[in-house]
Specification:
By secondary structure, this protein is α/β, with parallel strands linked by helices. 30% of the residues lie in helices and 21% in strands. The protein starts with 25 loop residues before the first strand and ends with a helix.
Length: 501
């Protein structure tokens, strides 16, 4: 196993296998570094037949490999590539079908330029890649490949189709045709079966059931973004320009690893972020009196197991000095607080110390019985939370990363009451914008999709998702093409700066 590192000059140009069906007419090009040899030994195909074969793919022309890299880098820098997928793990059939699965589109592939044996053409795992380019860019893309001595091994092999079919032809005859939806279900079933044995089988079934016709045929639009505010507006700019930088304590405990992203987010919004460890508070080295804000971070506190946030809270509740510090802070009317992930769990266990937070739930193990790290959709609700001012009604993707994120109400509080008193600030939604209990759109099984709340006066907010990890557009795994440098989540931190004033 070889591990290597390389500099990424601009992460905005990251390529994915997702075929784009929203860019007009496009073409698929195979760059065949095997140069027609189509060697099959040690391929997935031979393994299926319990064989090894005789002749394996190899790097016969190192210059061609170097030229290939240079060509791809050049085309990518010029934004000529819509999608990219290597061929050397499964062969051409696996490559183009996976690209079609990611893009929810049909494809039509012509094998005429790849030899007379469709078996060899479709299943050889020679070096190479398939790229998608706009038809209007085809000539310029082929020119770049020619400049890099790759013309003889670069072949236009097909395009997208609107019938939702995976179609291969050779010499004018269809040699294979099937619906993409049928193939994608087959492709996903092995993972589903393993997931059913390993995880909560109901969650596994719900995720697999998403591969229905609406989803597979493109009627389910996937992640979307809709905001009720101008994401380019920096509402904190007037306050940053004064030069004043109110101090915020970025609180962490054993195992927490999200303090850097959190500090960056508040720093960009005009705060002076100070790293504060629980031992600083317990020992008396740090007093919370001088801070205008307190944020409890996430990232595997106490190994993210056995009620990790509860353990964190107990270091406060069972230490007189720390308990007094936090009680005094929570009762000041000129401060605010945010708890994210493990910090959310911790704050929820301190609700008796926080005015107007008695209705907050506790957070239990995910219904899936697994750590959930994924992008999900959330809706910002109408609430007094100062962090979400003017964001109500927005529906935005965000990331989650937790093992114990399921909101469970105990005692006299319940989800309905939290909604009725407008203290639910965020909830999970599906791709149609509706509240959901369905997995994985609701990644932890939280009742009524609740994943963020605030206290009654809006000064203290808790949430399971990680907005600090996606404040820049480039750190979102998906985003609309029109977003600028900052994602909508930067508004949350700027709202805090405006409130402190």
């Amino acid at each position: 196993i070889t591990t290597a590192f390389a500099i990424v000059e601009d992460v905005r140009h990251t390529l994915t296998p997702q075929l784009r069906n929203d860019k007009g007419e496009t073409e698929l090009i195979l760059i065949d570094l095997g140069k027609g040899q189509n060697r099959l030994a040690a391929s997935a195909l031979t393994q299926v037949y319990s064989q090894v074969g005789n002749e394996t793919p190899d790097v016969d022309d190192a210059d061609a490999l170097s030229n290939f890299f240079a060509a791809i880098q050049s085309l990518n820098a010029d934004k000529k590539l819509l999608a990219y997928h290597d061929r050397s793990d499964g062969g051409l059939l696996a490559t183009v079908t996976e690209m079609a699965f990611a893009g929810h589109t049909g494809i039509s592939i012509n094998l005429d330029k790849l030899g007379n044996s469709p078996l060899e053409s479709l299943f050889n795992e020679e070096l190479g890649a398939v790229i998608q380019v706009q038809t209007t860019d085809l000539a310029s893309v082929l020119a770049v490949l020619t400049e890099n001595q790759l013309a003889d091994c670069s072949h236009v092999i097909g395009t997208l189709n609107t019938e939702g079919e995976i179609n291969f032809t050779l010499a004018g005859e269809t040699i294979y045709n099937n619906s993409r939806s049928a193939l994608q279900k087959i492709w996903a079933e092995t993972s589903y079966r393993l997931q059913s044995l390993r995880d909560n089988d109901q969650c596994a079934s719900e995720e697999f059931e998403r591969l229905n016709e609406d989803y597979l045929d493109g009627k389910d639009v996937g992640l979307t973004a809709s905001t009720t505010f101008d994401i380019a507006e920096d509402v904190s700019a007037p306050y940053i320009n004064t030069g004043a930088k109110p101090m915020i304590a970025v609180l962490r405990d054993q195992g927490v690893n999200g303090q850097q992203e959190m500090a960056v987010a508040f720093d960009r919004a005009g705060f002076k972020a100070i790293d504060v460890h629980m031992t600083d508070v317990i020992s008396g080295r740090v007093s919370l009196d001088e801070y205008k804000g307190l944020v409890a971070c996430g990232g595997f506190s106490y190994g993210d197991v056995l009620g990790a946030g509860g353990g964190w809270a107990k270091t406060i509740l069972h230490n007189p000095r720390a308990k007094d510090e936090f009680t005094q802070f929570f009762n000041r009317d000129d401060v605010f607080g945010l708890g994210v992930c493990n910090g959310c769990q911790m704050f929820s266990h301190l609700r008796d110390l926080i005015p107007g937070a008695a209705h907050w739930p506790e957070f239990y193990r995910n219904q899936s019985e697994q750590f959930e790290g994924r992008a999900v959709m959330v809706e910002i609700m109408e609430s007094p939370s100062l962090l979400f001012k003017d964001m109500q009604g927005s529906k935005i993707p965000v990331v989650v990363a937790h093992g114990e994120g399921r909101a469970v109400f105990t005692g006299q509080s319940n989800a309905e009451n939290a909604f009725s008193n407008n203290t639910v600030s965020m909830r999970y939604i599906d791709n149609t914008g509706q509240t959901t209990m369905h997995y994985p759109e609701n990644p932890n099984g939280a009742d009524m999709g609740i994943t963020g709340l605030c206290n009654t006066d809006g000064r203290f907010t808790i949430m399971m998702p990680h907005p600090e990890r996606v404040i820049r557009t480039v750190t979102n795994s998906w985003h609309p093409d029109g977003w600028g440098e900052d994602s909508p989540w930067m508004r949350l931190f700027r709202n805090a700066r405006v409130w402190v004033n």
